[in-house]
Input
Amino acid sequence: GDDMRRPGDRHRSDGTDPTVRVLGSLRLPDVHLGGAGGSRSEDRVDEPSVEAILRAVAVQHLPGAPTVDVDLTAAEGWSGAVVAAADRLQLTGSVMAGVRRSRLRLTSAARAELERAHRDELVLCLHREAELLALRERLSAVADEGDLLVLKGPAIAHLDEPDPSWRSFNDIDLLVRADRLDAVVRTLMVDGASRPWAERRPGFDARFAKSVTLTVASGMELDLHRSLCDGVHGFRVPLHRLFGMAQPWALGGQTMTALAPVHRLLHAGHHAVLGSARPKLMSVRDLAGYLARG
Output
């Protein structure tokens, strides 16, 4: 029977990949997988189909997003595969939102596992935010509030998502004004932070590096960016405008600063297109959000 169609099967007549990328027009297929009744073959779970579900669920909140109506309550294998992939890709927030909106229905066991995985992600995010607040306080002696802009994870979660719980992260990225970068690195290394690669020569980082990666005492990875990307694209970024148009936001009763919306779009594009040969779904989701919201 056709009760367990691969997502997007009905769209294949034009040769379009049913897992077409979120970029640009956001032309993802609608995803429908049957109702609770009927027979299902557990052994037909496959990664492209799971990916198609995750792609659609990831952008469910955006204008013009595809319809998501997925019932996996009688398919333990599919439910488990979706949750496992969401956990691996840090998309439990989007999947949990889909479940709460009844757009994605899972088995009881899979939903319990999703709730556990999502809770673990949020606990980690809270720890990272606490470390971010502590970092801001520690660095106040060598950098003013406007010298440090929060990039990616925490800023996206609090400024761009329907709810911060939709966007998880496992490290902290800061854009540091170039003339403050050396002082910030020295301060953190005095506190016990380490860097995997030494500076090529004194002054190199503040003039040429895209970022300096540190591991702080807690084990968290901290990326201190001088620019948004490597190479010629990074040197073309007008850094003074990034700091001059920074957006304030509140975290734990403290005022933080982030890139302006247009610059968050720029950074999301750089990160998705230049960051790796095949960008993470979360990175493409971030970019899709900015493009869809205009």
Observations:
- Confidence is low (pLDDT under 50) at residues 1-48.
- The first helix runs from residue 47 to 58.
- The first strand starts at residue 31 and ends at 33.
